[in-house]
Structures are given as C-alpha cells and as structure tokens.
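[stage:ingest] chain + small molecule (adenosine-5'-diphosphate)
[stage:ingest] validated
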Amino acid sequence: GAATFLAVRVAPLADGLVVVLAEDRTTAVRVEETRRDFVANVSHELKTPIGAVALLAEAVESAADDPEAVLRFAARMTIESQRLSELVGQIIELSRLQADDPLVQAEPVEVDDILTQAVDRCRVDAQKRDVQLAVAGLPGCYVLGSELQLVAAVGNLVENAILYSDPGARVTVAVHRVERGDDDVVEITVSDNGIGIAPADLDRIFERFYRVDYARSRANGGTGLGLSIVKHIAAAHGGDVAVWSQPGQGSTFTVALPAPIGDAAAPLTARLPE
Ligand code: ADP
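[stage:predict] done
[stage:export] tokens:
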C-alpha cells in the first residue's frame, strides 16, 4: 500500500532512536504518481528482455539445420535471461526495502566490516576489469542499522565504480567521521577516476531505471535500479547519499549515516587517542 512509501526521518536522540513520520496530502498524491510511474517502468523494462527471449526462441526454431546459429542464439538467450533475473531480483529488493521502511531491526554495525564485505563481493569483477580496490577504514567506528542493507548499498556503489572505470583504474572506499552542523556523521565514500557523470544527469541518476548512457549501461548489464536502492537504504538509516562528479575525471559517492550515541559509540571512544 501507499503507506510503505512514506517519507521517513530517523533522528538519533540521547536516549535512543526516535522515528519521525511525515506525510501530507501532497505527499500522498506524489507517492501515488511515483508508484504508477514505477509500475509502468517495471512493465517496460521487463518487456525488453522477455521480447528478446521470445524472438531468439523463434530464431532457434527456424535455424534448426544450422547448429552454429542455434548455439549463437542460445548464448544470447542466456544473456537475456540473466538480465531478466537480475532485474527481477533488484525489483524485489527494492520493494522489500520499502516494506522494511522504517528499519525495524537496527543494531550496531562496524563500518569496516561493511566495507570489507562489500569490497570482497566485488573482487572478481574488479579483477576481470583490471581495477584496483583500495580501502581506507576507520577501526572501531560503528553505525546503527542493518548490516545486510548497508553491505548491499556500499557494494552497489563499488560495483558501479568498477563498471564505469577503465582498465588499470583505482577505486577507493573510505570512512570519515565528520561534524555536520550539530550532527555527528559517518561518511562512507566510494571514489573512482572513471568516466564521470555530466552535470545534467547528476540530479537524475538516483531515479529508478535512470541510466545515463543506455547502450553502455545495458552492455554492462546495468538495470538503472542500483542507485535508487542505495538512496533508499541511506534514507531508511536516517542518512542520505550525495555525489560529486566531473566528466572524464571520475565520481565520488558519499553515504552519510548518523553516528550512533550511547553504548554503540563506546568502541570508537575507547580507541580514540588521548
Ligand atoms: P546501473 O544499473 O545502470 O548501473 P544505477 O542506478 O546503479 O544503474 O546507476 C544509474 C546510472 O548512473 C548508470 O547507468 C550510470 O550511467 C551512472 N553511474 C552510476 N555510478 C557511476 C559511476 N561511478 N561513474 C559514472 N557513472 C555512474
């Protein structure tokens, strides 16, 4: 229902987490439009690979006496079905996240642990594309949240950084603890020196299904859902995601999360130098 799309802000207070729900009629109308757009987009995105598989199946039938052609068509069918299954997987992930919003089981998670898991997940991809992965962690730094979701978010950003970099490039993942106004914030940055993003696209890349270069993104197996999933996870944690980018120079994505207070922050305080 529409309730799962509510705008949610989680404000950390001294005695724990307070969740503030905000909704008004305009929000409800906007939510309904977003939902309708989403369904239309999903149908459109699913039709492409399904149509391709159907065409390829026909092609296989009519090429029955040409074993080489059959193999070629079959290989493309495999690619299209992989794409279909990736797409369905991400759509399910997105709706699961929306249902889980606000986050129900927030627990202290060590940020270095998130980075290690996210980077490990991308090692094979990085090796394939000859991209170096560097991690600058911050031992003892914790946030409150879902480990699974945060690993997925950072993993998505690292995956993109690898995908939109050239061979020999380096992708850096780092953690900083910063003051933002009165707030104590943990920033996770994923930086690449890849193709970058044009200013006109920067505002739109977090939209569902938005892809800058459809041909390149598609050839790389992108779905256009990765960044909207990242945005959703950051918001569910009371944080946000921002991007800096310069075409031809690279991009830096920053996920900012509220630093925990009370017991969860103890491991950091305990390790801070005098
Ligand atoms: P996709 O599955 O296509 O990667 P995303 O939602 O993850 O979808 O990203 C949306 C678009 O943003 C991508 O198609 C790509 O054009 C652009 N993008 C994302 N990350 C980067 C990056 N690190 N460098 C350059 N472009 C990027």
